[in-house]
Structure formats: structure tokens, C-alpha cells
Amino acid sequence: LAMTMPKDSADLTAALMLLILLSGLLALVKFMPWRHQELNNTDISINFAIVFILATASMAVRGSKSMSTSLSVLLFGLSLLIAIAIAALALCNVARRILNEPKYAAYLSHHQGTSACAARLLMYMLQDELQGPMFYE
Fold this sequence. Notes:
- The chain is mainly α.
- The chain is 68% helix and 4% strand.
- A two-stranded parallel sheet has the order 1-2.
- α4 links the parallel β1 and β2.
- The protein is elongated and about 80 Å long.
């Protein structure tokens, strides 16, 4: 809807974009779609920052007047800070998964029945050959 607005109604276009982003933010706060609360909080923070940047920039730019350089640098810095924070959260999550993941030399799983004895025998035989612990289910 915002892309079909005429060029001379930039204020209306920015207001519609803000309305769409705010409705998404309110839905996010109401329904909390992520399984973990940390993800919900991160998503809410990012969406709030995007709404803040768009609202500040749209209020600073009116018609042919241009935004001041200091405000432009501030908003760019805030956008860059958000991108760095997202990347840092992603790297921390990857590092946490790598460091906390149990390391097994082998995984042994069997169907119930006669294969249980064969799997247990294989486990005893592999214990001497493998260097790490084995996961036996």
C-alpha cells in the first residue's frame, strides 16, 4: 500500500509505513510467537528500534527540507548499532550451541527386540576402538 502512494505525499507514505510497523509490533507483543522469551524480547527490541528510527526520520524530513547532518549520522549510527547487536546475538547463540553440545564418538540406537543384544555387543566392541564417549540409546 505504501509503495502505490504518489511522490508528493511522502508524509502519508511514512505514516502508513509507521502504522504497518506499529501494528506488527503490537501483534508481536500480544502473541509472543517465539518459543523462547529471549527471542521474543530481541524481536520486540529490534522492531521498536526500527519504528523509532522511521518515526524520527520522518518527522525530521518534511517536504523539501532536508534532515540535519547530525541527526542523519545519529540515525545511521543507531541502525549500525542494531545490525552489530543482531550479529553479536547470532554469534553468541552459535558459540553457545557449539560449546554446550555434547561430543560423542558414536551414536548407537536400536529397535526394541533382538537387535538390542547386537547393539550392546557392538558398543562393547567399539569402546576399545573409539577415543570418545558413546551415546547408547
